[in-house]
Input
Amino acid sequence: MDKVSKDGMDMTIGVDLGDKWSRLCVLDEHGEVCEEGRIATTADAMRKRFSTEAPCRVVIEVGTHSPWVQRLLEELGHEVITAHTQSVRLIYGGTNKDDRLDAERLARLGRVDPKLLHPIRHRKGSAQADRAVIRSRYVLVGCRTKLINHARGMVVRGVCRSRNAPREAPPPQIRTSGITASGSYLG
Output
């Protein structure tokens, strides 16, 4: 890939992020494509590629990798615009879907008017980690509730019974340990 020796602020780079490889398109101050290529979607590869680049506008699309890519590129001094591409019909609704074209379209839209990209801002890393813990807790509570309800349903239907309850009447609170499908007890 050729390096551009401009001051950088007139350049716009569009990056179509992929799981393993990302496509990039660099536009000069006149809107001409001066570089196209692909780059591994890893922190090391991104750092190596963009640390030598003069500060410029980098446009990425929202996705799995966009939070850490946004943080990394901002640390390197670039202006990062994370596009909500579902709201950009040119990219999302296009019939000519191609990663190379998407990177160029991101760069062109970012160069002309970033508001057309419906930009978003990702939360800080610590806030995302906190939300992940809360979401995991929510999912675990939901699983526990489903298991309890399943065990209660099995007891009510007489398919299995609780350790201390008579077969006719299910207990008010069911303990899931010690219940088997045949009605025998684990223990």
Observations:
- The domain at 12-122 is CATH 3.30.420.40 (Nucleotidyltransferase; domain 5).
- The first strand starts at residue 12 and ends at 16.
- The beta strands are 12-16, 21-27, 33-40, 57-61, 79-83, 119-120.
- The two ends are 67 Å apart (CA to CA).
